[in-house]
Amino acid sequence: MPDPASPSEPQKRKLPIVPVLLGCFGFLALAFFGLAALMALSYPVYEHIFIKAREVQAKNDAYGLANAIRSFYSEYSDYPVPALTKETTMQSSAPIMLVLIAEEPDNAKKLNPRDIAFFAADRAKDNRAGLTADNTFLDPWGSPYIIILDTDFDTRILDPISDETFPSRAEVYSPGPDQDPNTWQDNIRTW
Question: Fewer CB within 10 A of the end CB, N or C, for the chain?
Fold first, then answer.
């Protein structure tokens, strides 16, 4: 019979299961709460990043839309709106958008007879940032862009902020996060 104290056979020690499990769960709980605290502290940073991303998207979309209108004018020497609805200021709604994306109805008198796509837009998700089912082009906050056209063909546009004119054929702005086109502090504009 072997001697239990002999060095040739190591003794098996049993670890108490409860303290080991409590230690593991305690470590996991500490890691979880530490991660939650870091996420809570970094939330304002991420929120600021998302706000800036929306502003950049609105600015890019506004410039793209203004350039599409200018390109249309260069191609056809006219604006992509029917003569009966020419206004100085309008929204980025179906009449102008269908012309710019070359999807005018076949039964209408085409303003874009060559079917040139001057503008490309993704479809809006949740009625934000993109072309809706009714073909209104929305900014990241869900408002239509505002388009200002030089419809008297003097190559000058009235600045809605200063009421002075400046040289341009077409400009676009987004009402911004507050969705009010009359508050200029947050509006995203191309001029």
Answer: N
| Alpha helices, H only, the chain | 17-76, 94-100
Q: Nearest to residue 142, comparing CAs of 169, 167, 177?
A: 177
SS (H, E, C) 127-174: CECEECCCCCEECCCCCECEEEECCCCCCEEECCCCCCEEECCEEEEE
Contact 181, 58 (CB under 8 A): no
Here the contacts of 154-158 (C-beta below 8 Å, separation 24 or greater) are 157/88, 157/191, 158/88
pTM as predicted: 0.75
Q: What is the distance in angstroms between the CA of the first residue and the CA of the last residue of the chain?
A: 97
Q: Which of 50, 57, 52 is nearest to 140 (CA)?
A: 57
Q: What is the pLDDT along the chain (191 residues), one digit of tens a residue?
A: 555 555 566 666 665 665 665 666 677 777 777 788 777 777 776 777 888 999 999 999 999 999 999 999 999 999 998 775 666 889 999 889 999 999 998 777 899 999 999 999 999 988 889 999 999 999 999 999 999 998 888 889 989 998 899 999 999 999 999 999 999 999 999 99
> Sheet containing 170-174: which strands, arranged edge to edge?
89-91, 146-149, 170-174, 188-189
Cross-strand partners of 162:
none
| Tokens 């837009």, located at residue | 121
